[in-house]
Write a structure and sequence with these properties.
Blueprint (H helix, E strand, L loop, with lengths): L5 H94 L13 H9 L1
């Protein structure tokens, strides 16, 4: 039988305290991560529940939005007709505003001669 070397056993056993310390640190980190994962899971479940509620609330609007889309599609040609009809009026208004000065609200500005006429009366 080969001689038994206690030095090898001693070296192997001397690693155990350091190994235990490392394992405890890993265990503590895993426990902290586990708690964080639980909190995140609770948050995800809350968000899922809220999303389901929002989906249920919005679902009836889907049909109504389709109706609005159809109504808008029916109005678009009429709006185009009105725009075409107004175009000459816009053009005429543009010509008038170039001939007569207008204030910020589009009204014809008062002639500056009026205050002078008022002074003549007094």
């Amino acid at each position: 039988m080969a001689p038994f070397d206690l030095g090898v056993v001693r070296d192997a056993v001397s690693l155990l305290p350091r190994l235990l310390q490392e394992l405890r640190a890993i265990h503590q980190a895993v426990e902290e991560l586990n708690a964080e994962v639980r909190l995140m899971r609770e948050g995800v479940e809350r968000i899922h529940a809220e999303t389901r509620v929002v989906g249920e609330a919005v679902s009836p609007l889907d049909e109504r939005l389709n109706e609005v889309g159809v109504a808008v599609a029916r109005l678009e040609p009429k709006i185009a007709e009105v725009s075409d009809a107004i175009h000459p009026l816009r053009r005429a208004t543009g010509l008038l505003t170039r001939r007569n000065s207008r204030d910020a609200n589009g009204r014809a500005a008062q002639a500056e001669a009026q205050p002078a006429a008022a002074d003549d009366e007094g």
